[in-house]
Amino acid sequence: MADAIGIALLGAGTVGAGVARAIETGAERYSSRVGRPLALRGVLVRDAGRPREGVPSDHLTSEVGSILADEGTHVVVELMGGEEPARQHIESALRSGRHVVTANKEVMAKHGPELLALAAERGVRLLYEAAVGGGIPIISPLSRDLLANEITDVTAIINGTTNFMLTAMAKRGAEYGDVLAEAQRLGYAEADPAADVDGGDAAYKLAILCGLAFHVVVSPEAVSRQGIRGLAARDFAYAQDLGYAIKLLAQGSLLPGPTGAELVATVSPTLIARHEPLATVDGVRNAVQVEGDLVGRVLFEGAGAGARPTASAVLADVLDVARDVATGRLPPEAAPYARAQVRPRERVVARHYLRLTVADRAGVLAGIAGILGRHEISLASVIQVEADSRARTAEIVITTHPAVTGRLDGALTEIAALEGDVPEVGSVLPIYGDGGAR
Amino acid sequence: MADAIGIALLGAGTVGAGVARAIETGAERYSSRVGRPLALRGVLVRDAGRPREGVPSDHLTSEVGSILADEGTHVVVELMGGEEPARQHIESALRSGRHVVTANKEVMAKHGPELLALAAERGVRLLYEAAVGGGIPIISPLSRDLLANEITDVTAIINGTTNFMLTAMAKRGAEYGDVLAEAQRLGYAEADPAADVDGGDAAYKLAILCGLAFHVVVSPEAVSRQGIRGLAARDFAYAQDLGYAIKLLAQGSLLPGPTGAELVATVSPTLIARHEPLATVDGVRNAVQVEGDLVGRVLFEGAGAGARPTASAVLADVLDVARDVATGRLPPEAAPYARAQVRPRERVVARHYLRLTVADRAGVLAGIAGILGRHEISLASVIQVEADSRARTAEIVITTHPAVTGRLDGALTEIAALEGDVPEVGSVLPIYGDGGAR
Fold first, then answer.
1. Which residues contact A419 (CB under 8 A, 6 or more apart)?
2. Which residue numbers of B are catalytic?
3. Are B141 and A145 an interchain contact pair (Cβ–Cβ within 8 Å)?
4. Would you call B335 and A32 a contact, using CB atoms and an 8 Å cutoff?
5. For tag attachment on chain A, is the N or C end more exposed, with fewer CB atoms within 10 Å?
6. Separation between Cα atoms, residue B155 and residue B140, nearest integer Å
7. Cβ contact, residue pair B35, A333, below 8 Å
8. How many Å apart are CA B137 and CA B129, to the nearest integer?
9. Distance (Å, rounded) from C-alpha A344 to C-alpha A326?
10. DSSP alpha helix (H) spans, A62-159
């Protein structure tokens, strides 16, 4: 095994154990695909005394130093998750001349550009296919296969937990609290679901996708974010009646602005016309739709999470790097990116869906329509439903034509100030897919 | 421009002109993505005297020798189509040490393995992303991103012409002849539509996909083929009633056989359950679904043809090779493949849909059911419709449970011999997507 390509893992959770097991059981197959055998050299864990299924116990260590000191390790695979110490370990591995493969969306979203620059400087590779969309090939197609295109738009369902929850709300008329409890019972949602339901996880992934698609540096803070906590079962019923599904869409576009191209990046529950391919992506599945000037729209769909799909993506990166090591290929140069100029939210143009609880008396709708009109927001449809005869309130559901978000904000502030007439401004959701130019 | 990477095109049809134009207009962008500028050096055409839009006239030549004699040409892009002389030109280019990019499905299906071996021997690359699925990234994801998987199944809609026709038959109840005429009018079908409607084009592409997915050499003759000429509008109506769409599916599987893994590769109009993602791929769009042991099912969907999507794939390959040239990377070694062992058609297990015209008299259905039963084919559903009261014939539509195709053939031979009772065995189509184990 003198000529084996050495692999070290940082982290031995379910993905790590799956990768370790695959390297053992797939040894012959991978060796024929790479040209040289792969050998697992070390596995960083918190407690090296606790045995891990599928990992020989003499490979376990709690010292990252001993992993980096091993001259036989060519590739370091980071599967710890979280920002620190994962980022630090990736940096150390790159500095020590190791290729790095990571599944870490948070580190890549926040520190990707400087880590990629460091890798290029050290003549090694930093790959991160598993950071977005689990096993679905998307990072590599954006980096390579769509490189000839000017990408104009990336629209994705990239959080399986929330897609499971929204699918359940749509199909069974269930309320948010019930589907969250169910997702937690099934292990799809964490005890603290904030990262999923508030859109943070999707925002990390969207920042990574936008960076690759538009060749700019995108920080996760550039992604404007709305979570799914405020959605009610009846939003799905109204959306259905209007011909839409509701999905937590992550959308990025590069649009012409007054001083150059501007990035619009949003994560939000969004109404999407039912004939759109993304509207039929249900359950924990993920999908990424990319629009380019040459290729038109292409869609990538599959399992967005899970130990085995994630291991598929991690191993693809490992095999790719290993082939480079085996053939002595040099890594490609990283092209330096400029920081994206972000379009302020109030200048973004979109269609919207509004659900308002209003007092059930004459003139209220006229008042609301008047406010919207004064703010230059024209209505595409209006539904009024008697919601609660005892409280004498009704519900008004409005869809707008494309309008500047800042004007909508102004109108909604005025509408909310109507108080007695409008006890609650319920959901305010963007609409994607027909005339929703941004 | 001393350090430009020289590109030569063989063929200047719509794709070639698009590629030439993109190299000119995208010069700055591509140069920043590659690290060195690209320069168009020569374009092989039949008549060098006829001007071509987007191609400088001094680049035109009708002599392939002058292209290969140009020391400044690093990459030869073959866009002529057809088997010869395209194959010969690709071989000559590889022998002369040039990297080759081709969109030629016929050459890659018939001669891919030996050309790839030649490229490896000469230390150059041969890329062919555009040969399957137009602009949809599929060759590169199979070669790289899914490499850690054992792929068990590839199921695809990879002929846009027939998918346009079948979609029109399904949505409008139109007959075959009418939709063919429409497809020809719109430029989707050739004057001689045989390559599309008889499944030959899809068979070439499936042979390429199976080779990559299963790491075996697959000749196009290994693909069993049924075209769409025999379909009637009422097949779509029956399928709809039964919960299916009809698509020209290209399917490949690697299955355990008595003497090792066996390939099953078929192109056939196929009933596919409506809830399957592939059932909703309509019009000229293509989609490829790949199933792997780690990743589960992933789907790639987009425009499967057209000058711009094809140019997107060709240019992706050109940029990938150009980055190698720019960074001095060596091509990866080609893994030698074994020739696939093909499962004989009669041993393939599938569910089937049968449409029979029968005499409208007592006992006919019992006779047919008896023959099927004796051949161990059990029925999943039976519909009998009075088709023509003057001719006193009825139509029987049967779906079977999974059965060995050889037994079905035997049963159908006996049924066809009933003559007076069964004037016509109409459509016999496989069913995909629920219990259709093969």
1. none
2. 205
3. yes
4. yes
5. N
6. 17
7. yes
8. 7
9. 48
10. 64-69, 86-95, 105-122, 139-140
pLDDT, tens digit (0-9, with 9 covering 90-100), for B154-210 = 999 999 999 999 999 999 999 999 999 999 999 999 999 999 999 999 999 999 999
CB contact under 8 A, B327 and A333: yes
* Number of residues that this document lists for chain B: 438
Q: ipTM score of the complex?
A: 0.91
Which residues of B are less than 8 Å from A313 in CB distance? 145, 295
List the single residue in A18, A303, A332 with the smallest CB-CB distance to B296.
A303
| Kind plus residue range of the DSSP H or E element containing A327 | helix A307-327
Q: In what order do the strands lie in the sheet with B60-61?
A: B60-61, B38-44, B5-10, B73-78, B99-102, B126-127
Distances, alpha carbon B351 to alpha carbons A201, A334, B246, B384, in Å: 43, 51, 14, 19
Query: What are A358-415's pLDDT values in tens digits?
Result: 998 888 999 999 999 999 999 999 998 877 778 888 999 999 999 999 999 999 999 9
- For residue A44, the surrounding DSSP H or E stretch is strand A38-44
> Measured between beta carbons, which residues in chain A are less than 8 angstroms from residue B30?
148
pLDDT at A289: 98
Q: Of A133, A83, A85, A131, which Cα lies nearest the Cα of A110?
A: A83
Give the C-alpha separation, B250 to B288, whole Å.
9
Q: Do A312 and B294 touch (CB under 8 A)?
A: yes
Q: Which residue has the tokens 């060519």?
A: A74
Q: To the nearest whole angstrom, how far is the Cα of B336 from the nearest Cα of chain A?
A: 9
Nearest CA in chain B to A36: B333
Q: Is the distance from CB of A137 to CB of B298 less than 8 angstroms?
A: yes
Structure token digits, residue A273: 């016309």
**Of B57, B304, B256, B41, nearest in space to B157 by CA:** B304
Q: A-B interface: how many C-beta pairs under 8 angstroms?
A: 184
- Residue B376 identity (one-letter amino acid): E
Alpha-carbon distance of A265 to B158, in angstroms, equals 33
Nearest residue, CB atoms, B312 vs list A30, A148, A326: A148
Measure the CA–CA gap between A273 and B437, rounded to whole angstroms: 35
Q: Are B368 and B408 in contact (CB under 8 A)?
A: no
Closest CB from B30, B140, B303 relative to A144: B140
* Residue-wise burial string across B310-346, b where 16 or more C-beta atoms lie within 10 A, e elsewhere: bbbbbbbbbbbbbbbbbeebebbebeebeebebbeee
Determine contact, residues A244/A274, Cβ cutoff 8 Å: yes
How far apart CA A251 and CA A383 sit, in angstroms, is 28
- Helices (H) then strands (E): counts for chain B: 14, 19
The answer to whether the CB atoms of B299 and A297 lie below 8 A apart is no
Give me B356's structure tokens: 């029979």
Task: Summarize pLDDT for B239-292 with one digit per residue, the tens.
Answer: 999 999 999 999 999 999 999 899 999 999 999 999 899 999 999 999 999 999
A321: left (phi over 0), alpha (psi -120 to 50) or beta: alpha
Give me the active site residues of A, please: 205
Chain A: residue whose CA lies nearest to B315: A148
Q: Which residues pair with B428 in a beta bridge?
A: B354
- Residue in chain A closest to B128 (alpha carbons) equals A145
DSSP A339: E
